[in-house]
Amino acid sequence: MSERFEVLEKLGEGGMGVVYRARDLRHGREVALKVLKGASERHQARFQREARALARLQHPGIVRAFEFTRHDGDPCLVLQYLPGQSLLELLARRGPLPPQEAVSIVAQVGEALVHVHAQGILHRDLKPENVVLHDGRPVLLDFGLCKASTEGDARVLTLKHMGVGSPGYAAPEQINDAHNVDALSDVYGLGATLYALLCARPPFVAEHEHEVLLATLKQDPQPPSTHNPAVDPALDALCLRCLEKEPRRRYRSAAALVADLQAYLRGEALSEPEELISSGDTLPPTEAFAKLMEVGFSSDDLVAGPRTPSQHGQVGDAQVEAGDFAAAAASYRKALAGEDDPAVRLKLAYALRRGGQPRESLEAYTQVLAVWPDDYRVHVGRGAARANLEDFAGAAVDFRRALKAVPREHPERRRIKSAYIAASKKVRETKLDRVRLVAPPSTLPPPQD
């Protein structure tokens, strides 16, 4: 190929890009060369943007970019060569993975994705093919669709002539408008990858690509347990939460998803969707602070200053969006001191539970139930607080009451049912453990005639 690189083999080719395995004679190492062939100036600019984006990413779970150069006038990206099989190849060889193994892999990919998002970059093409197992660790590859989320030019950076990612793994909003994506689109892609590892197939399968895209837009995916009976209700709920049509109903961030994946691996209770327990639609952080500005606040006013109960509540909303639940609880208490509003008390209960105060949260939810006995959100929130306290019998009762309070066609019913099943399973396990503790099988008296 050149005096510097000795080409060893072609690894792949698609669209206008070719990837080679080569030896870098200057540095004495094997590399992957990604070459753009016959590209226009616009495509070359996108390719250079990919190089700049990769250069900002330094994480063991992300392929390294060594440099951007040219060969015979064609742009060339010199990448770390990672021998190993992709997750797609792993699935072809083994079929569906055991849930613990699948979750462990996706949690590690998620940690890399958190780093990607922290640099202001979106991947936009998460799928098993773009993750390789190298030295026992999953590594995220192929940023050919990546987008710098803070750049003005939101056009897709691609070598594949596809503006929507990959069918079966692209989020609905990516299909509708490739410009209108954010980090939650990557959350969808990561959830679809988890689904594939559990089921050896993506969430939607059809004979033609357009049918897959249409199903992604119009249909709900089947729970992974439909294809893999080893998947339990909690993991079903986690996976399906990633695949919600509306981005706001997914995990709020890749970091929140990783936290639940790790909790699952530890056998701990998972978080429940915020929409189930909030007293209304929440605002994105920038909109929440803009709302504060409408009532006469500056950013300094978030710390001190005389406020009405309504204004205290708005400050609490912004603090929840920022993840400062202790401060939000304090703000909601101030609002309640001026006016006892059950909607604000519901928000207080949520902030207390998210802030690690489940007993105080349980008390607040119970107070709201005295006013709103038929509100499913309150029952779900109180059930979650009880689950945090390991009162799974009480949690199951609350989740069952929530199920009775929502119509069968309600979009949250499936997740509430999953929570009820998970709590009920914990109750059965606890009872079985108690039986074993009181009378181990080896010491049971013989049956009487």
What does this structure look like?
This protein is an alpha+beta fold and 449 residues long. It has three domains: 5-80, Phosphorylase Kinase, domain 1 (2-Layer Sandwich), CATH 3.30.200.20; 87-271, Transferase(Phosphotransferase), domain 1 (Orthogonal Bundle); 276-435, Tetratricopeptide repeat domain (Serine Threonine Protein Phosphatase 5, Tetratricopeptide repeat), CATH 1.25.40.10. Helices cover 48% and strands 12% of the residues. The chain is built from 16 helices and nine strands. It has a five-stranded antiparallel sheet, covered by helices on one side. Strands 6-9 form a two-stranded antiparallel sheet. A two-stranded antiparallel ribbon has the order 7-8. Helix 12 (342-354) runs antiparallel to helix 13 (358-371). It is elongated and about 80 Å long. Mean pLDDT is 81; it is low at 145-164, 275-305 and 437-449.
* DSSP E strands, number: 9
CATH topology of the largest domain: Transferase(Phosphotransferase), domain 1
- What share of the residues does DSSP label as strand, in percent? 5-15%
Number of domains: 3
Distance between the termini: 88 Å
Tell me the quaternary state: single chain
Largest sheet: 5 strands, antiparallel
Gross CATH architecture of the largest domain: Orthogonal Bundle
**SSE pattern, N- to C-terminal:** EEEHEEHHEEEEHHHHHHHHHHHHH
Derived from helix and strand composition plus strand pairing, the structural class reads alpha+beta
The coarse silhouette is: elongated
Radius of gyration: 25 Å
